[in-house]
Fold these 3 entries.
Entry 1:
Amino acid sequence: MPEISIETLRERLNERLPEKCKELKPHFDGVPVLSLRKGSILPLTAPHHMIYIATLESGRKVVVRVMNPTIRKYAGEKCPFKMTSEIATMKYVRKHTKVPVPEVLAYDPDKDGKVGGEWMVMERVHGVAAILMWPALSKELRRKLTLAMANVFAQLLKQRFSKIGSLYEEGEDSFVVGPMALIPSHDKIDRSVPDDEKCGPFGSQKDWLLAVAKGDLDVGRDRPLQGEDLERMKEVIKEIEEADLLDDAADHSKIALEHVDLNLTNVFVNPDFPTEITGVIDWEGARTAPMWAIQPRFFERTWKMYEVEKQELHAFGYELIRLRVSAWNAGGREPGWELRNLLREAQERRVNPSKVEDAVASLARLSLQVDEERLRREAFRRSETPEPEDRRY
């Protein structure tokens, strides 16, 4: 398996950037990759990428992400168009919303293979990862930061698309929905990737759910279903085909943009004003999806929080989102709950996973989804009568 050529990467950077690269340093687990204000640092790693900091002649530092072929043995395969879709999404969000997103300065697919993997260059995000600031924040500041994240979420919900999939560039400043760019597996056993011809874009909710149920969007082991698993899949497919809830014209079925990992780890804030978001990162796997399927998970990786506080902040964030995007509010109640249950059945279509780790992972995902659904219901029960959408916080 080839390794990344630092010298070739430096040469390509000099060709693509307006300034020469005078220093290029790799960063690994636990090593700071972003130079942050007031001496703060953030370790940035990814199982499919190597991260470098390039120092330009002017002293400016930029972030370089390279698809890493050498450590891919520790993780699964990636979809071939993941990075191009990620870049298109970032450009789209910068153009059509006020969400702060790093500017993409360059991209190269490494067609000749001399670097060792496709790569992109981004501007450095100034600030601190919100997850690092969170423990020191007061209750009031946590509420304000939750509102700021809900505002980001609402801006993405307001975007409208005609198909379900992922974004790609189509000419200069033009975008199109294409195949769904799925997040790579973090399991080294998962060596298979979906057939891109089966990844969309999907013209209806039913087509998308059927693709999920059939395993067309699975990033994992290429293992055909047998016995009870196969029968269960057939039952789920029949349930989807006969579902009366799948109304593409309904408000809650409008197709919006989703950042699939919008939580405190991927939100940067101003350390002097920690409720001010300075950047949102990690757009890989972003997709266009029906609004009923898009639900916030702001505190998904925030383990040191009391359950009561999570419920209160979730309810607080949901309230702002539903006020800003009334169509999403309908998807939070009936029939949104039933539709999400249908999606969950499509995702968890196996009866008897053939390996113990599959069963454990399946139960963990189901437990998380049940928790999230309970939080959603509790949030909406606590919600008061909707106010006008132009309310400002």
Entry 2:
Amino acid sequence: MKSSERPLIFVTNDDGVQAAGIAALIRLAAEFGDVVAVAPNESYSGMSHSITMHRPLFVSKVSQTDGVEVYSCTGTPVDCVKIGFDEILGTRIPDLVLSGINHGSNANVSVIYSGTMGAATEAALYGIPSIGFSLTDHSPAADFTASVHYARQIIGQVLAMPAESLAGLCLNVNIPNIPQDKIRGIRVCRQTRGNWREDFVHRTDPNNRDYYWMSGRFYNFEPEAEDSDEWALREGYVSIVPVQMDLTDYQRLDTLRSYLGE
């Protein structure tokens, strides 16, 4: 990218094109470059890396102002990245992809369920650096002031990194839901080990059909691990976890070859 050019920044989310979090992220992205945003027409939270295969996708332009284009898509967050790259951007290649700002944490193993991070990891598969931002507050009225402050800092630093460090970079950023002046800084850390255990509420509808509402709780296997994202958030830090899509368990390769063959 020439120094005289403004970066092209692609923005998406999983809470929907009308969510407050993506509006804040679009405004922030416009400080750094030209913006194309493609987001789901409604909430697709928890969709992970799912794509739409058996129904059509409809895309409509929501708004266009100087340097900012916003589109709505009837698909998942990953659909938004795919159709955005292949159809809306045309020959343009984004310098950075931003996903969020999510209403709710995507720390720990939540990253594997997250539509926010599904979109970010899809961009990384194209070799485009990406950042998923999440605030640990599910409220529709969440205050994104601190999130924007730290996202501005992180975006600026990522854009200043050398090109050889950026290809396929994917960052999972979570911001604690505390006042900005209480945040202690940023920690680069690893994903916390643990799992989600579900609670199902069993009910019956007016037609006497059984149905369930699902909720759950995260069980932290290592609450005192100071290099983990959950510890960082609990202690008042913004957590940054670098994420990769290669799911190979390299530590088991040699053992499995000895049992199962090369």
Entry 3:
Amino acid sequence: EALEAGKVSLSDTVPVSEHAYHMGGSQIWLEPGEQLTLDEMLKAICISSANDAAVAVAEFIGGSEPVFVERMNARAKELGMQSTTFRNACGLDEDGHLSTARDVAIMSREMLLNHPEIENYCTVWMDTLRGGATQLVNTNKLLKSYNGITGLKTGTTGKAGVCISASASRDDLRLIAVVLGSSSGKERFAAATSLLDYGFAMFESALVPIPADAPKTLPVQKGEEPTLELCYTAPERCLAVKGQGSALQAEVELPQTLEAPIREGSVIGSLNIKNSQGILQSCPIIAAKPVDARSFSGCFRRVVNALWLTA
């Protein structure tokens, strides 16, 4: 997000502090005062799970690791990760540092959907840093064995066990499998493989178009504008049990009219994707633009225009 906001660039140099240097677990043995580009640090994090690089990047972007962790927790809350609390930037065991498979899946989905460039790092099998002196080997062995694998990240600690968030894509279907608490790497990858295999065998990505007669605007009372432009946020596709995708339907739920003021982005209604058993997914329909409440001058202009047209 800092990259997309233009606050940092991949070519920026990231310094290594004493704090980052003292990180345990997997690392690339950064030295205090050493500098690598942000691009190189991201390679170290995504390919080799380098804790020292993760903390160095956190300090670079946040000013300090605690400040960056505060941002992590705030973002987790925004994403709906209700059972997650971060205590550090690298995932090492610490009192109160907790998450769940569901929350890891939510975080993984956010990365893949809205920051797809992450795949450029997570799908690299081998790379080098420091002019070839440091070799990076990806800890995700599924890159070599699973058809359609697109990432994402492994992790291992004493309390969490051997873990992975694995993502894969085949045709139009993209899946995420999260495994926590395995006893070995072999068990971790086998469990992730089984989950992904089940998903691809049982489900399909179904095209669910927005109804052709879905309103594009709604009338607005007491507004500077007579109508509000609507924005449909529903995805073009929805997950369905294999063979049942054609039975899905999209239904629009909207009020008959609105009253100003209306803020841009306000939720106006919903597009409900349904099957015979009920609603599978509800997607918000939002205000594409704001509509201010009608001012005295606006009312005056309308009266004058009306009189002019009837004169």
